[in-house]
Amino acid sequence: MGAIIAVAGISAFDLYNTLNRDNIVLATSGEIDLNGPINFMIVGSDTRKGQGEEFGEVTSELADVIMLLHISEDRKDAVVVSFPRDLLVSVPQCPNPDGDPFPARKRQQINSTISSGGVACTHLVVQELTGLEIPFLAMIDFKGVIEMSNAIGGVEVVIDKPISDDYSQFYIEAGTHTLKGTQALAFLRTRHGIGDGSDLARISNQQMFLMALFEKVKEDGTLNNPIYLYSLASSAARNMKLSESITDVATMVTLAGALREVDTSRMKFAQVPARVLSGVDDGRLEVIQEEATIMFDKIRTDEASKLELPD
User: Fold this and answer.
1) Which residue from 18, 35, 264, 281 puts its CA 20 to 30 A from 9's CA?
2) What's the pLDDT score for residue 70?
3) Inter-residue contact 256 to 70 (CB < 8 Å)
4) What average pLDDT does this structure show over 293-300?
5) Comparing C-alpha atoms, which of 290, 226, 259 is closest to residue 11?
6) CB 108 within 8 A of CB 91
7) Which candidate, 42, 40, 33, 71, places its Cα nearest to that of 263?
8) Using CA atoms, how far apart are residues 192 and 292, in angstroms rounded to an integer?
């Protein structure tokens, strides 16, 4: 018994130290009510720094994936909203840890906000765009996706049509596949091999992957099993950058508990209502403000279950 307690203590200490390393400092702060509705932001970075030569030499860093997860107060419903990387947004003044703040800017692609002020700036943009308080943020890079998908033994997805994408080096036949490692990353990145080759086309892949991942950890009992949950939390802490608001182990357990209660059949996926532009902004998107206001008002009043989404 003493040995078990000692090992548990060492594990908890190790997880605590890992969680409290290189955290994201959000520009906004306030009371966090873990008993109320929960808003959680997920960002996928395309940085090549420290990723190895296989992903190419790209000096810039962009927010390749931006998602907002809302869990209702009664823990029965959840909605995931994706923000297209080519969406034009207004950027507020963003903190600069190395000097004067970055100035506010108009009509900037949302994926570029991470390059001026870091992911905390992207977080500010999404808060301003949605009118929501978002106390939790996690960011993952290429290696993180690879390691996290390996940690859970892969994610099963159903692919309707064969995909052949030389850009992301992803080639796969139609059918049911369990994706992990570099294959999971390529699936999330591919867009030239699906639909019209736009970012909007690959958002459906990203949402399908997230849903399949969520179903897997629920079916495997990961969110109910302290040992599995510790393993997943430890992997997340090693492979993701987390906001300071998540660095408490008890908070992570509470968030996992909130997800555990959500019925997968009541989980919805949406995109920010947007229209494709032409002319000088050809290929970029702008928010359809009236529709977006309705969407985020329902999320703010915890009525995400009433969102009417296209099939």
Assistant:
1) 35
2) 95
3) no
4) 95
5) 226
6) yes
7) 71
8) 28
